Amino acid sequence: MNLRVCLLLCLPLSLAACQKDAADPARQAAPAPTPVAAISTPPPAYPAEVACTGGEGTSVLKVGIGAAGIPDNITVLTSSGFPALDQAAQTAVEGWRFRPATRNGQPVPASIQVPVTFRLPAELPTDCYLVQERLRRGG
């Protein structure tokens, strides 16, 4: 009999404690942090003076992504070996858009590394003849 009375008294208290934990938002887990994600990444313009001379390479950029998903503070970590390609990479990334990183469900600034690779197209730009002629003449 004492066991029944004890169980009858303990059961409602246990259920009440469970309900209190479920309703307490402080005890619920915070949302997991999320990394930066690319939304719009149009390709960079390939500088004709580099493409026409056979230049290829990869620029690795350090890019700050603000809480609004807009890139800022873009710096070259590793050069492609062609200043014009590095500049084209920076200019392109300035126009990219990202979903910002989050912490506790709120957007936060973050930094990422972005490789931008330039490979020669199958067909060279039509103005290569003009560029090659200008280079041949020394200007």
SSE order and pairing:
Elements: H1 2-23, E1 37-40, H2 48-51, E2 57-65, E3 71-78, H3 83-94, E4 97-99, E5 101-103, E6 106-108, E7 110-118, H4 128-136
Notes on the structure:
Helices cover 34% and strands 28% of the residues. The protein has a single domain (31-136), classed as 2-Layer Sandwich (TolA/TonB C-terminal domain). The model is unreliable at 3-11 (pLDDT under 50). It has four helices and seven strands. It is elongated and about 75 Å long.
Query: If classified by CATH, what would the architecture be?
Result: 2-Layer Sandwich
- With strands numbered from the N-terminus, the spatial order across the biggest sheet is 3-2-7
Tally of discrete structural domains? 1
Question: Which structural class do you get from the secondary structure elements?
Answer: alpha+beta
The CATH superfamily is identified as TonB
Helix proportion of residues, in percent?
25-40%
CATH topology: TolA/TonB C-terminal domain
Strand content: 25-35%
The separation of the N and C termini measures 105 Å
**Which ranges are low-confidence, i.e. pLDDT below 50, for 5 or more consecutive residues?**
3-11
Mean pLDDT: 84
Main beta-sheet annotation: 3 strands, antiparallel
Write the element-wise H/E pattern from the N-terminal end onward.
Answer: HEHEEHEEEEH
Number of strands: 7
Number of helices: 4
